[in-house]
Amino acid sequence: MLKHYLELLKLRIGGMIALTAVVAYLAMTRDVSFVHMVLLTVVMLLGASSSAVFNHWYDRDIDRKMQRTAQRPLAVGALGNPNHALWLAGALLLVGVALAVWLFNPVVAVHLFLGAFFYGVVYTVWLKRRSWLNIVLGGLAGSFAVMAGAASVNPELCALPLLLALVLFFWTPSHFWSLAIFLREEYQKVSVPMLPVVVGEQKTAFFIFINTLFLVAASILPWFFNTLGLVYLFGAAVAGALFLYGNWRLMQTPSREMGWRNFIGSMRYLGILFFAIVVDVHATV
Predict the structure, then answer these.
(1) 158-285, what's its fold?
(2) Of the residues 1, 167, 276, 277, which has the fewest C-beta atoms closer than 10 A?
(3) What is the pLDDT of residues 215-229, one digit of tens each?
């Protein structure tokens, strides 16, 4: 039973959201608190998990038809009344928002709520089954994680978190469209209009490459506006070059295997970028 509930939480995705918020926190201050990072992680996991549980509940009908998701707990009826998941999703979000206000400030709570809303409602309910733009707008959850992490230090709007949020905005389509190439037949089976289903793998690979050009350009802006330094610029350049090379290979061979490789490459890109941010802020004068 516990295993099924943990699966509902999509902790790998939640962990990525929490890591994004923690990196944004580290980008905003040299006075690092381990307790602050732990509490921020807990709060972000609660928000991300609430939208994940809702996603499981709402998509249980199509999950049953796709091989990748057919054994999810709500798809197989492993937890009894599926509507109980709605109560769990609401409770997780309520606790997460309340803790964000109590431990940090209302601005963190607003960004936490908006991140959950965009994944749970904008992506899952409004766009996923209707438009190829689903992941473009739904992917703003990652951008709100950046804003939440930064606001835990300074709730006032400032340049660096906005620029990093823009980077996450452009990263998400390149990341998810690569996975969608790998899973195109699955999405086609349930009539979900992911970009490869709508335009095919070849055109999707081209759009990924174009989007990644915007991503790399956006990643230079924190250096251009003097909010991060040369160490970050070097990391962003290396990460961007590697990712663009992977995108180019995907355009040459737009196969399931290359889609998966580019998906992994997108995570490598983000890892290098995050590392560069932390080193630039905390290991340089």
Answers:
(1) Four Helix Bundle (Hemerythrin (Met), subunit A) (1.20.120)
(2) 1
(3) 999 999 999 999 999
